[in-house]
Amino acid sequence: MYRFYDQRGRDFIWRRDTSPYIVFLSEFMLQQTQTSRVEQKLPEFLRVFPDFASLAAARLSQVLSLWQGMGYNRRAGYLHRSAQEVVQRYHGFLPEDPQLLRSLPGIGSYTSNSIPAFAYNRPTVFIETNIRRVYLHHFFYGQQGVADGELMPLIAETLDTQNPRRWYYALMDYGAYLSRIVINPNRRSRQYTKQSPFEGSVRQVRGAILRILTAQGQGVSRDEVYTRVYQDLGLGDSPPRDYETRFLQASSTLINDGLILQDGDGTYNIP
């Protein structure tokens, strides 16, 4: 594995600088986002928010504005709230204990273990899509419906506990390489789900609502947002039949996620 990594290992900003804040940012950004897009966005974030203190002190609208183009805007809200908790609870120092990290907004099983490995070189055990691909291909060839619980003991057994950071880099890069030369082994995973289309989805409407509100910089009436969203999405002079349902679902989930506020008069704002 290391021979492969020495010859074909990828070079990323968050690998050249493994300081906890950069690892923290990159791990949030890499959730459901291609590495090429994160490579472009991370330097922009670091210029505006160079540390936990500056990110925590920012308005959510600033974070969302900078996040545009990354998708899954809920992550930006979690990122912002997690930074605030790191400053308030841990005085700006990111914990390396997975249990403490798990208590932060938006950090689940994978991220609570990947951050200690990449930021602190701790031998934690975790799985993601490239790692899963490697173990399915080499240890469960041809088997269907393989659960992650069957892979985790193998990951723990093969982990380089002396240098877990470099081991995971090599493992993930090899998994990315496998994706180009074999039929995707992840389809044989019990955890495999095919992503639903973005066009016409509630997620697309959510993104359009946030894009309009961050550009406006002040409150916008619900009716105006309703109209501007379907114009922004190029849906024509009048919205399609199911548009109102998608708009209501998108706006209500944004409110529930704390990404927008709705005043008593129906005006939308970003906190």
Explain what this protein looks like in three dimensions.
- By secondary structure, the chain is mainly α.
- Among the domains are: 102 residues, Endonuclease III, domain 1 (Orthogonal Bundle), CATH 1.10.340.30; 68 residues, Winged helix-like DNA-binding domain superfamily/Winged helix DNA-binding domain (Arc Repressor Mutant, subunit A), CATH 1.10.10.10.
- The protein is 60% helix and 3% strand.
- The chain contains 15 helices and three strands.
- Strand 2 and strand 3 form a beta hairpin.
- It is globular, with a radius of gyration of 21 Å.
List keywords for this structure.
single chain, 271 residues, mainly alpha, Arc Repressor Mutant, subunit A, three-stranded antiparallel beta sheet
Summarize this entry quickly.
With 271 residues, the protein is an all-alpha fold.
Helix and strand topology:
Elements: H1 2-8, H2 13-16, H3 20-29, H4 35-48, H5 52-57, H6 60-67, H7 74-90, H8 98-102, H9 109-120, H10 129-139, H11 148-158, H12 164-181, H13 202-216, E1 220-221, H14 222-232, H15 243-256, E2 261-262, E3 267-269
Antiparallel strand pairs: 1-3, 2-3
Across the major sheet, the strand order is 1-3-2
CATH class of the domain at 19-120: Mainly Alpha
**Roughly what fraction of the amino acids lie in strands?**
under 5%
Topology, number of strands: 3
C-alpha-based Rg, rounded? 21 Å
Order of SSEs: HHHHHHHHHHHHHEHHEE
The CATH architecture assignment of the domain at 19-120 turns out to be: Orthogonal Bundle
Largest sheet report? 3 strands, antiparallel
Q: Please report the distance between the alpha carbons of the first and last residues.
A: 47 Å
pLDDT < 50 stretches: none
Structural class category:
mainly alpha
Shape: globular
